[in-house]
Every structure is written in C-alpha cells, then in structure tokens.
C-alpha cells in the first residue's frame, strides 16, 4: 500500500510502556473519529526509515479556561507504539495510508452528481429579473 506524508514531527513525548506521542495533533474530522491502529513509515532527518504501528485516537484535553474551544479540547492524536522519543526526532516525517491522511486533512471525494450551473447574465437596464431556480444537492 502506498503511504503519504501525514505530518512532520514538531514535538514528541514518551508515555512509559506505551510509546511516543507526536505533534502536531489534528482537529476531529466533521464525521467524528473512530480510534484505529495503523501501519506507518518513519523517515528521520538523518535519512533512516523505520516501520512502526501507531494508535490514532480521539483524545480529550482539559483546560481550566472555559473559553477554550471544543476543537482544542478534542483532538486526534498519534501515538507511535513501542518506540522511544530518540527514535522519532523532531523533523521526522510520518507516512500513513492515503485514507488516514485524507480523513485527517478533511479531504472528501467531490460530489459527482450533475448539477446545472446558473449562468450569470447582466440584464438590460429596464428588464425585470427572473428568480433563480434551486438545485437539489444529493
């Protein structure tokens, strides 16, 4: 399966016995997020590459400031399992499946339904304008 770059590590921290959480994290996609384990490839800044497994999961962060938005409180976080922070230095590129990358970058397939496109016409000065017709979006 072809993998694409999901993120370049800007920071990371160890969770003893679990692995390494890498940043940046991601906004929750519009349809929500279901936790999953995913294979990934790590390319370090020195040119080494490693195969690994990550838990990509929905995580809640607690803030004492009530004005912090829901987007900052609920994030999708990548935990590279069974690795140490030293194995994933800042600047490492993490490659995942296109499906994961598209979901977290909020890319969707375009609507393939054919829809008429209204033509913009400037009416002459004394003409009345007819109302535009609506289009059903499937």
Query: What string, H for helix and E for strand, traces the elements in order?
Result: EEEEEHEEH
**Helix coverage percent:** under 10%
Radius of gyration: 22 Å
Beta-strand segment tally? 7
Categorize the overall geometry: extended
Structural class: mainly beta
**How far from one another are the termini?**
31 Å
Domain count: the total is 1
β content, as a range?
Answer: 35-45%
Name of the top-level CATH class: Mainly Beta
User: Can you give the mean pLDDT?
Assistant: 85
Please, how many helices?
2
Give me the CATH fold name: Elongation Factor Tu (Ef-tu), domain 3
CATH architectural designation: Beta Barrel
Poorly predicted ranges (pLDDT <50, ≥5 residues)? none
Largest sheet: 7 strands, antiparallel
Can you list the strand order of the major beta sheet? Answer: 1-7-4-5-6-3-2
Word description of this protein:
This protein is mainly beta. The protein has a single domain, classed as Elongation Factor Tu (Ef-tu), domain 3 (Beta Barrel), CATH 2.40.30. It is built from two helices and seven strands. It is extended and about 75 Å long. 14% of the residues are buried.
Summarize the structure.
By secondary structure, the chain is mainly beta. The chain is 8% helix and 38% strand. It has a single domain (3-104), classed as Beta Barrel (Elongation Factor Tu (Ef-tu), domain 3), CATH 2.40.30.
